[in-house]
Here is the input.
Amino acid sequence: MKALTLALASAVLLTPSCSFAGQLEHREHYEQRVEKHQEHIAKELGLTHDQKSKMKRFSEQHRAEIRAVQDDDALTPEQKRQKLMELHRQHEQFLAGILTPAQKTKWEGLRAERRAD
Here is the structure.
């Protein structure tokens, strides 16, 4: 009986940490995908060193804001959706502000291709 109680207590105590570990692993994988995507976009658009630097700083802040919204349990799903949509609009405005006209045209083409897939 003691062994069963100990096993159950261990399972209960370890379950949240396993879940948390899974979340961390998922977040790390997501961060790696984002970085890889940014490198691809930078190459496709021919971003300058300055543009890459600005994009990296903005993206780090942007991802932190996204995580804050996703982790905010006080927000309803609809409020989270609206805040995330606003963050997406801010991201689009930022990109429009640092890209040259030719890069914007290329960016729009890449987005259209991605949406078609």
Observations:
- The chain has one domain: 2-116.
